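Hi R.,

Here's the chain you asked about this morning:
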Amino acid sequence: MNRSLTAVFSALEALLVVGIGIGISLVPLTLMWGIQYGLQLDWVLFWRASVDMWLLGHGAGMTAALDEVTAAALGLPGAETPFVLTLAPLGFGLLTLLLGQRAGRRIAETPHHLLGLAVAVVTFAVLAFVLVLTALHPLARPSIVQGTAFTTLVFAVGLGLGAGLARYRLAGSRPVDAIDRLWERLTDWPVRMRAVVGSALVGAVASVAALVVVASLVLALLVAVNYGDIVALYEGAHSGVLGGVALTLAQLAFVPNLVIWCASWLLGPGFAIGAGSAVSPLGTALGPIPAIPVLGALPTGQLAWGFLGLLVPVVLAFLVGVLLSSRLRGALGARPALGTVLATGGATALGAGLLMGLLAWWSGGSGGPGRLAELGPSPLLVGLCAALEIGLACTAGMLAARARE
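And the predicted structure, written out as tokens:
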């Protein structure tokens, strides 16, 4: 494959990623336009809605407003004045990351992979810029800079990950070995410091990952238990079959957000569905909320056994600490000293707090006017609770394993 074919192939890969991201919402909306609305509305409305959702999913902010009739029909006073939307349906960003990783693997197998990667990134940036321009409207105006930069950044990260993994696989080496070599080059530190920092990074990522996995299971359980309430909200929407499909796809895009919110609930701070509301293990206090079906899975009232949820991150971090002790011992070549264990626990707390705080920040934001300007968990509270609970429990697990040794 020569350079020209590589460039064309890479540009098509970028176009495919953008097309899939936009098409997931545009296809059902177009079917609604043709079947449910009988082609009576302007199709450009559905195009702009799909592009807006895609841009929001990558973190691009948007200034929006509703006309007085629509604001009154939705019961959103003050929505006729411009407000900012920052709540990102992270499913779109995650899809771009995964598709970018796939594109990176395919481009890395070409003889001119560096050229291909550059062409893919530039093509994606140009497409994102054009899409932002097509979505501009006085009532919904996405940020041109954020819409172009943030979407391209997510794609570039996925592209780089996929290409890197593919190149190491073609070279016959494992990515883990490459990461270890890179870590040794970047950290020309004493053995003890490198062992502490490396083990802390592993402990923080493992603890947060385990918490997210359990949170996803909790979310699935809540949806299954409250299935009747969710169906009732679907029936109350009177959206029809195609409208129900579009509504379901929109909610699926927010599943990563909901999983992070569940993780914040397990840590203790919980999250908010509007200013002045709280959903936490101690109980749920909600004001008027949108009639979105998935919100029917929210726990209500005081939870007699809600405090048991606080044990989940503690138990998970303790188990990670037990496993981390053997890694620390292997890195040092001897039984770690008490000070080394405590330093590793403190660094793990810092890493876990920063990571969970960042996830909480990504998952929340402004979802509308008035009360809806505050949605999701508090990044500061979530980060502090994660640092405290995971740090102490992980340290306790390492100390227990050290005492047993």
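The CA atoms of residues 83 and 389 lie 37 Å apart.

Let me know if you need anything else.
M.
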